[in-house]
Amino acid sequence: MPALSLNFSQDEYRQRLVKTRRAMEIAGVDVIIVSDPSNMAWLTGYDGWSFYVHQCVVVGPDGDPVWFGRGQDANGAKRTSYLADANIIGYPDNYVQSTERHPMDYLSARLADLGWADKRIGVEMDNYWFSAAAFASLQKHMSNAQFSDATALVNWQRAVKSPQEIDYMRKAARVVERMHAAIFEKCEPGYRKCDLVADIYSAGLRYDETLGIGGDYPAIVPLLPSGTDAAAPHLTWDDQPMKAGEGTFFEIAGVYKRYHCPLSRTVFLGKPTQVFLDAEKAVLEGMEAGLEAAKAGNLCEDIANAFFTVLKKHGISKDNRTGYPIGLSYPPDWGERTMSLRPGDKTVLEENMTFHFMTGLWMDDWGFEITESIVIGANGPECLADVPRRLHVKD
Amino acid sequence: MPALSLNFSQDEYRQRLVKTRRAMEIAGVDVIIVSDPSNMAWLTGYDGWSFYVHQCVVVGPDGDPVWFGRGQDANGAKRTSYLADANIIGYPDNYVQSTERHPMDYLSARLADLGWADKRIGVEMDNYWFSAAAFASLQKHMSNAQFSDATALVNWQRAVKSPQEIDYMRKAARVVERMHAAIFEKCEPGYRKCDLVADIYSAGLRYDETLGIGGDYPAIVPLLPSGTDAAAPHLTWDDQPMKAGEGTFFEIAGVYKRYHCPLSRTVFLGKPTQVFLDAEKAVLEGMEAGLEAAKAGNLCEDIANAFFTVLKKHGISKDNRTGYPIGLSYPPDWGERTMSLRPGDKTVLEENMTFHFMTGLWMDDWGFEITESIVIGANGPECLADVPRRLHVKD
């Protein structure tokens, strides 16, 4: 087995565990079952595309976390996490997608072995990877446990980034710059979208000699709807040619060691319509206002209100949130699912929080995205990537 | 809005609905809440990367299905599904990742409007996209409903593929052939894995003039662990160079219109070790036996038993399942999560069922994958892709 190369120091993992246990204490839980792969990776280093079967990391009252997953993936846990073999539990393969037995039946027995079956146990109730059936199994097999909702408990500990995390996100920013350069270079009427996506992946993945890094997969595939389809924010692509006279937004992220730097730009092929020029003006002015509010001590909603006020002045109403925290992520989402940049979110911004300032507009028959990923500073934000902030026109 | 181009005829969608309602009747449910994006797409055509927020398709006692999702994604439903606007319900954005309100609160009210709140309602209890919190919300707000587990009810209706579906999977097979050709061409000592993954995406996505198609994203990113790392089946890649004297398996899929053709091959750089040569011999002989059993009327376990018997003769014991159904898929899994090719699965094979015959071996310090995707026929299987079935050696 090769020497383990962790993405963070043992000390950083230890601090994360301490932070998590402090939050557990405040939440009144002795044990937390962490099903979110991003949280699992953040706590232990575990990295693998195994989240299509049940798995979790369990943080108990003391000691290192316990990794729990499919038997064949235990080898992956041994190779990518800092955990000792004794802290890695694999379940037999006949628990996989079985109608007779559930992996959480097996976990319940192991938690009983550890003496944790009658504890106060936090579970991530509203996480993709914690199904209703998983919860039912735990409740059935650990009737003496007291379960409570710990959704996002670990996600919140991830909000303020360490220097090493910021470094990875800056590298991801270099990657996304390269991706947008490739888009602008290749995008033209007649060029097929599937080919453009291949170019985007190429720019996002290939080793860069100058940077000394290659890229990782994004938690969301490239989104690049054109024309009226751009009214829908989450369409992917097809194999049809790009057309003159249409706007296309490109919502993509550079990724390094699972850390994301999302960034969107809109490309118009041909002479932009007044609608696009007006949108550009409103969004750029609004972004300036929002970025000015993006400093430690302000609230999440301050950024959104600043942006929305300018939009309104331009006669545009945006009825969805305008950003979310980013960092370490696995599909299906590169957001951290804690704060939102929207009116009513009174979370206080802290230095080294990181957000995708998602200033996209999705109207009835058009869409427009110019966004920035930012690091909150004492006096204002650092924009992670440097891609010309304007409507990109190819005439 | 552009003319809707559905991937299947209205008639095919109608048949799917009829099949689903028949299964609902047998299961004793009046209404089914379908959270799985693959099932949502199969029933309505809906296609978008929006499954990171709560959404579903509801099939009621009569009429077309109802699409339910985030307000901004309703535009996507209008553009990709056959549903009338009246059957598309968007929820307000302040339900997104909120700690105060849950999208299923909103859905409950809509189901009450439709007169379905006191019905027998099936839910996909063990689906990624149906969290414990989603179920708790439904139970709280529809206390007169009778809930029951309908996990995989729709997935089972997808098991036997239509001619159009088989056609898409054959196209996906052409794509995966191209991907493996690219791997074999590029793979050599010193070549970086991230660059190889860029090549794989390029071959998987770019428009092919001969075929007249471009590719789609796979539900699982390329898996390509080398050497001892190949003991872990679900590691992805890094930016390090490939090494001489190591085996690497490539588990990838070609995808067309969300239909998958997975296929794995193993490449050895340099002179293969005896372990790899022995594995090749055992797996190829075992696959022949398994493929012979892959015909209508036989059972799922017959394929597995045939394969395992040969492996055992060669002194190899595989303790995990050896295949699963495939077709239309979204991340995180290109399997259909119904049958498994393993001892004990007594599902009767039918013509036009499709499987990934996943004959991978993951041992203590090495791994080996040569697999086939197959269509069950009356007298034997069709292997979808045509990639030389052997250990690929580059000396």
From TrEMBL, chains A, B:
Top-level taxon of origin: Bacteria
CDD domains, alphabetized: APP_MetAP
InterPro entries: Creatin/AminoP/Spt16_N, Creatinase/aminopeptidase-like, Creatinase_N, Ectoine_EutD, Pept_M24, Peptidase_M24B
Residue span(s) of domain Peptidase M24: 168-376
UniProt entry tagged with the keyword Hydrolase: yes
Positions of the Creatinase N-terminal domain: 16-160
Enzyme nomenclature, EC number: 3.5.4.44
Gene Ontology MF terms in the entry: hydrolase activity
Pfam families in UniProt: Creatinase_N, Peptidase_M24
Keywords: Hydrolase
Protein name: Ectoine hydrolase DoeA
Organism phylogeny: Bacteria, Pseudomonadati, Pseudomonadota, Alphaproteobacteria, Hyphomicrobiales
Gene coding for it: doeA
